[in-house]
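Extended Data, record Fatty acid desaturase domain-containing protein
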Amino acid sequence: MDPATFKDPNLTVQDVLVLDTLLADVDVRKRTNGQVPANMDSDGASNAISKMKALNDPGDPEFEPTLFVTWDLRDLVRLYPWLDKWVLQPYRECARKLVRVETDVVMITHLLLYFTTSVPSAILLFSHFSWIHGVLHWIMQTYYVGTYTLMMHQHIHMGGILKSRYQWFNTIFPYITDPLMGHTWNSYYYHHVKHHHVEGNGPDDLSSTIRYQRDELRDFLCYVGRFFFFIWLELPLYFLRKGNMHCASRAGFWEISNMATIFILWNYVNWRATLFCLVLPLAQLRIGLMIGNWGQHALVDDIDPDSDFRSSITLIDVADRYANEHALVFRNIDYMMITVRLLRKDYKYLAKCLVPIGNQIGMDEDEIAKMLQAKTRRFTEADIRRKFPQKSQVQR
């Protein structure tokens, strides 16, 4: 598979619209030697944006809620009309009445999945442990954790998955499911929302990549090890340095409480079940989060590293401003594999995965590879003081 030409058939309708629009722009610019024709088809991009808005607007006839991450609803309706009539339509209408945002029906599906598989499986392991069940449970949780973490990202940003009248469930369910997936209680909220989004990979971000050479294995291992072993202490201390005693006390309390619970279950209840239900998911997720975060924030713009556009790696629905700001758009690769390719210094492969926008369109593969490599350079403290003049910097 050539990542420069392969088009994943499993992309969502929205992803296809974005990708086709960007590739059409690339084709036009290449045929005109990089010049933007005065009559260039802006209607294509406008139509794609209108289509995406319609697909996500509950008031639009084309609105299509996502029920499953594996299949598009339109394909299920086409292949199994009886299933749509007797199962999917009633379920969809019921779920739309429960969720806070009607595009989040898929999260009801996943909540049902976790509470009918993960939770009963964990209970059974603690009551009647077997090694085969333990291994299978861990494999199942490994499969679930990616979509669960995305669901929790939406949950903490939107103030809950379900409508406000079901706020009691929004409040309670993470205390049950978070530890089973490897999240410690409330740590995702305090680290991601109250800390990472505030700092944005800047000098005070505890998970910042800017002080590391981002294509070196030794730097990567130091980065992962720091988070894995010390985030329980560093996050409360970060909030103390910022004068936020409220977040400092709560972040520390929930992290220590979670670890204490694991200690008690290991020593006084069932260490084998605790290993597969709590310890392995925790270790695995913390490593996985840092692998993904490294890939997401490894390619930092040298001119304006504080820019959310210039240092972004994303697939986007409005290309114009991102193109002007020299953002990076990839396809046929995820953050995990970006990390792997960087550590292998396989910039040619990354160049093939890049969807060129703006000035990148005129670059050949070698030029793109060199551009990407330049974005992995470690920032010195002098660089940081110069490039982040408005940031409050903590002396390390």
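Summary. Residues 26 and 200 are 30 Å apart (CA to CA).
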